[in-house]
Amino acid sequence: MTTIQKKPENPIAHLTPEDIEAIGVELDAIRQEIVDSRGEADAAYIRKVIDVQRKLELGSRAVLLASLFPPAWVVGTAGLSVAKVLENMEIGHNILHGQWDWMRDPKIHSTTWEWDMATPSEQWKHSHNELHHTYTNVIGKDNDLGYGIMRVDEDQTWHPFYLAQPVWNFINACFFEYGIAAYDLELGANIKRKRTKDPEFQKRVKGVLKKIRRQATKDYLVHPALSGPSFLPTLAANFTANVVRNLWSHSIIMCGHFPEGVETFEKRSIDGETRGEWYVRQMLGSANISGGKAMHVMSGNLSHQIEHHLFPDLPSNRYAEIAPKVRALFEKYDLNYHTAPFPQQVASAWHKVVRLSLPNGWLAQTTPRNAPQQLAKLYKMTTGGPKVRRAIAARDRQMAARAA
Amino acid sequence: MATIETPRARPASTPRPRLTDRLVRFAEAATTPLLPADYLDLFHPLRSGASLRGRIEEVRPETADAATIVIRPGADWAGHVPGQYVRVGIDVDGVRQWRAYSLTHGPRADGRISITVKAVPDGTVSHHLVRSARAGTLVHLEQAAGEFVLPPEGGPLLFVTAGSGVTPVIGMLRNLFPVVDDGVLRLPRSAGHDIVVVHVAPSEPDSIFLDDLRALDAAGAVRLVARYDDVHGVLDVDELGELVPDLAQRRTFACGPAGLLEALERHHEAAGLELFTEQFRSARVEPGDGGTVSFTLNGTTVEADGGTPILDAAEEAGVLMPSGCRMGICYGCVLPLREGAVRDLRTGEVTTASSLESDTGGVPIQTCINAAAGACDIDH
Ligand SMILES: Cc1cc2nc3c(=O)[nH]c(=O)nc-3n(C[C@H](O)[C@H](O)[C@H](O)COP(=O)(O)OP(=O)(O)OC[C@H]3O[C@@H](n4cnc5c(N)ncnc54)[C@H](O)[C@@H]3O)c2cc1C
Fold first, then answer.
1. A386/A300 same-domain check
2. Which residue, of A71, A207, A230, B365, has the fewest CB within 10 Å?
3. Confidence bin at A82 (pLDDT 50/70/90)
């Protein structure tokens, strides 16, 4: 990937400014249709999901009281994992987006909701709703692209340090909720800029630690203790459910913006961006996961990531309904509606993580035949200094130019 | 739902036994970030300790456009005095709406409460309650409130009711004179009451509770003077003296449209008579200027025009506001105005606040009947 502005074939070059504004008008109309028809059925939907989720969680935790018996452990852990996924994805994420604020129910409202997640909802709303959704896929502005620790773009200079990126990414996936908490705190940047003594920052850290303590006490102390002789199996079950939930949500989120072919944008390009241009950026910066109802619910309807990014505050249960209209609009304007089944999108996203962990072009050039030379080159680039790396990169470019 | 901080109100005089205290804390640790109540609500929303709710058990048509809704209130319902109203929160088209309705009965042996609702043209909640509400629906409630109640000492009284304004009065009368199989009961507590009811309605078939009033009249419990606009013409308050010859001896309780109540106020003031009123809605004056309303605590700003209550404008913009009767009566929507000016949409009265001239806490204003008259800073 490279930012859309630097691509030899810019996929939006064929759009006139009038086209872009017309797209905005059409999307506004799609949005208004849903706003005008929001009602009782939608309210009943979210209440039903919350009801099912809570009963599933209670039931699973009840089964885990007997988790000393392996079948109970398996059933309880599976149920709790699903409950935790629902709680974070279809319920928490979407309520915190304000998708359900129109119901004026103080119990299902973005200003009062708290979720089963290391990061307090208040902090997450800022970094996610305000930053990520506004600056989607803008390099240098949208930290969702890499949580500050990843190489997410060819234009980021390669460093041997990035070779470990697939490993980090996997660790980050397992403990994703803590990764998000660190990201919401802008932990890396605050440490680097020596702002850790800032009282505002310390207050936020305290908030996160308190939240983590409560969530951990619940999963790793209170419920195991309730299970008596099943203390350890229950603890293991809760840990497993948390990891399953983390892996799942990490995968869904990778699928949303990371698969090959999803566009990124330069910081400069969003200066004075119009509403139409903002829409187009969301259209090209997101990817959908095709699948059935279960896929949609379990992903919190982020399987409709494109629709979600266009209309982050519309009720999630309505994305499926507008998806065909949005897709038709893509086709009308000859844009790439990026959608694929889950395994394909996950594979594609991981492929990108691996590709960018290596020097530009390395993965593409490597064949079983030239593998020894390529490995030698990688070794040199890894052990040599920046000068060595620049020289090798320059030679690669020359060879590519000559071949072309 | 869930809040991280869950302060539990615990009066100092009744310390909770330590064991229960610990159990509660343990239960909270097991359910965080939710509260134990969030799970209990799934199974028993009307239990003691839950936030106050009720379940609609019966919807009984009264006239073509009015119905009585019988509600089983939650265990913590504290009862009411006839004449009081209850605020009901109900989801209409998925959106939570709150309105006040008079309780139309005395305390009942079965512990249920009832309200009688007349569908007003284009009325969101009244239409829903009269036409679409179904038994089994959960509603949100607040404890009964209101000062429009009978003087305990009784005496000679006049009730003037118009349209659905009969509801609080019927609550009082039913409590005084319960109707059983063999007629109207005369209880000791009603012996000191001498009551005339002047009941006004557009037409006879439109009259809610006419049968009840007639039965009370027939039994000699009250004297009923029924007036129908289509038969008698619109009531002129100066006629009251003819309809009720001993008007001067009576204390008047009136409930009906603003126009009638204002006329009565003028009439009674001129005649030096005592008057108690209950208003269901208010007449609004011309829009003012409008302005930018900033909510200082949550950081949102809202452009409000001079004809829209700040509450409506803020909710339109997605701000979760405290609200109540939405007509300036219950004070459930009061927020402190820090800086700026608002205009009361009913009276045109302007309220101002400034850091120099106002109380440090700001000037509390009712957001439901005040519109911005310039820029406003409101603590919320
Ligand atoms: C203390 C108190 C007690 C009340 N008791 C009763 C009661 O026992 N029975 C009852 O039916 N109502 C009662 N009301 C009125 C009730 O609270 C609602 O205002 C009424 O049902 C209209 O609400 P809505 O949502 O249907 O109308 P809205 O959707 O709020 O308003 C729709 C339209 O109707 C107009 N409108 C609003 N209220 C009224 C009204 N009362 N009469 C005529 N037009 C109106 C509005 O100006 C608007 O144009 C009481 C109000 C108060 C403050």
1. no
2. A71
3. very high
Mean pLDDT of B49-76: 96
Nearest-by-CA chain A residue for B319: A101
For residues A9 and A176, the model is more confident at A176
User: Which residues of B fall within a CB distance of 8 Å from A214?
Assistant: 4, 29, 32-33
ipTM of model: 0.90
CB A150 within 8 A of CB A134: no
Distance of CA B281 from the midpoint of ligand 1 (Å): 6
- Could you tell me the residue range of the domain that residue B232 belongs to? 155-278
In this structure, the answer to whether residues A324 and A396 fall within a common structural domain is no
Which residue's alpha carbon is nearest to atom 20 within ligand 1?
Answer: B126
Name which residue sits closest to atom 33 of ligand 1, judged by CA.
B123
Give CA angle at A391 (A386, A395), nearest 5°: 150
Rounded to the nearest integer, the mean pLDDT of chain B is 88
Of ligand 1's listed atoms, the one at least distance from the Cα of B66 is: 11
Nearest CB neighbour to B94, from listed A39, A111, A115: A39
The total number of residues written for chain B in this structure? 380
State the average pLDDT over residues A30-57.
Answer: 96
Using pLDDT thresholds of 50, 70 and 90, give the confidence band for residue B87. Answer: confident
Chain CA centroid to CA B207, Å: 21
Same domain membership, residue B262 and residue B210: yes
Taking only the tens place, the pLDDT of each residue in B207-241 is 999 999 999 999 999 999 999 999 999 999 999 99
Minimum Cα–Cα distance from B28: chain A residue: A218
Tokens 């409460």 belong to B113
Give the predicted TM-score (pTM) of the model. Answer: 0.86
Residue at which a domain ends, from A340, A373, A389 = A340
Question: What is the average per-residue pLDDT within B179-193?
Answer: 83
Contact B96/A105, CB-based, under 8 Å? yes
Residues of A in contact with B3 (CB under 8 A): 112, 114
- Residue recorded with tokens 């829009």: B287
Subunit contact B320:A111, Cβ cutoff 8 A: yes
Domain that holds residue A282: 4-340
Give the residue from B187, B173, B208 showing the smallest Cα distance to B83: B173
Among A137, A93, A108, which residue's Cα sits nearest to residue A308? A93
Contacts of residue A196, Cβ cutoff 8 Å, sequence gap at least 6 = A190, A202
* Chain B nearest-CA residue for A224: B30
Burial category of B35 from C-beta neighbours within 10 Å (exposed 0-12, middle 13-18, buried 19 and up) = middle
Q: What pLDDT is recorded for position B168?
A: 96
pLDDT at B127 over 80: yes
Which among B31, B39, B94 is the nearest to A42, CB-wise? B94
Rounded distance between C-alpha atoms, residue B19 and residue B35, angstroms: 19
Please report whether residue A209 resides in a domain: yes
Yes or no, beta carbons of B94 and A43 under 8 Å apart: yes
